[in-house]
Amino acid sequence: MLCLIVGLYILAVSAIGLVAGHPLSTRAMAGLTTVGLTLTPSFLLILFLWHFVYLAIVVRPRRPIQRFVGDLRLNITDGDKVLNGTLALIAIVFFFSTFNFAKDKITYFQPFVWDSYFADLDRILHFGRAPHEWLYPLFGTPLATTALNAAYHFWFFLMYFLVFMACYDRHSRARSTAFLFAVVICFVFGGNILATLLSSAGPVYYREMGFGTDYVPLMDMLYRFNEVSPVWSLRVQERLLEAHHMGGAIKGISAMPSMHVATTVLMTCYLFTWRRWAGWLMVGFTAIIMIGSVHLAWHYAVDGYLAIPVALGSWWLGQKLTRLVNAPSEPVKTT
């Protein structure tokens, strides 16, 4: 079913691209494939180490190494698991590459027109001040900014790791299938549809897109901090702007809603179905991502506020869809 949904999505994006005079490109596919080949060994190593530690500390078999080798052999020789997991992973790679293509074409259908409204709404909701101004007393140092940026970039690794884990999960297919469905629904509805209807560039590009100098002090602060402690987001932001004007491998400016926040909420829901302590850890990580999205000038606070119900709605729909396609004997845990 996941492959069918992704296939329909690719066809829809291809058709829209052809009508708009921008046929679907495969450049992003090569980049995502490279990322996948690079990260997969790391994912496997983490999973193997986790399972070995779990066996040694929790299960404590008489011969842990032999038990570990046996479990490893069982997983590798499970043809259905390997085949279904690989197909799901390929579908997700195709989906994300198509999503990135569609995200890059947002301004062909809707220019950035909402930024000033979201900036004003931010001030209205936060008692007359921009949200980043409230955050400054706590995070207005080079070291704190670097820590937030590290967490913000760690999101990328964590997101792909959990997707990889969900693709090959054999203990609760319903739980993992619901997560994969929810990811696709969230990116399509939030990252394509809402992002087009509410097209905005974000505080980092507020001046470049002609909305004024409201966020120049924030950007100046980040560049000052970067001279003391690295703020890696600045380079990514510069490359996105260059690609927006001249084309490039990394492109696709879009702020509303925050897909960092939305997907972190999805990961939280998913991990709550696995272990409650992991879910609560993700609640804290979600707060960090929300703060980082504002402090690093990627998003208005309202981008994250809207992302939360989008993610929760996607999780709910993912569970409903899973119940429709899965055998009734394996219930989906709810959060």
TrEMBL record:
<keyword id="KW-0472">Membrane</keyword>
<feature type="transmembrane region" description="Helical">
    <location>
        <begin position="150"/>
        <end position="168"/>
    </location>
</feature>
<feature type="transmembrane region" description="Helical">
    <location>
        <begin position="82"/>
        <end position="102"/>
    </location>
</feature>
<feature type="transmembrane region" description="Helical">
    <location>
        <begin position="280"/>
        <end position="301"/>
    </location>
</feature>
<feature type="transmembrane region" description="Helical">
    <location>
        <begin position="253"/>
        <end position="273"/>
    </location>
</feature>
<dbReference type="GO" id="GO:0016020">
    <property type="term" value="C:membrane"/>
</dbReference>
<keyword id="KW-1133">Transmembrane helix</keyword>
<feature type="transmembrane region" description="Helical">
    <location>
        <begin position="180"/>
        <end position="206"/>
    </location>
</feature>
<dbReference type="InterPro" id="IPR026841">
    <property type="entry name" value="Aur1/Ipt1"/>
</dbReference>
<feature type="domain" description="Inositolphosphotransferase Aur1/Ipt1">
    <location>
        <begin position="119"/>
        <end position="317"/>
    </location>
</feature>
<keyword id="KW-0812">Transmembrane</keyword>
<dbReference type="Pfam" id="PF14378">
    <property type="entry name" value="PAP2_3"/>
</dbReference>
<feature type="transmembrane region" description="Helical">
    <location>
        <begin position="37"/>
        <end position="59"/>
    </location>
</feature>
<protein>
    <submittedName>
        <fullName>PAP2 superfamily protein</fullName>
    </submittedName>
</protein>
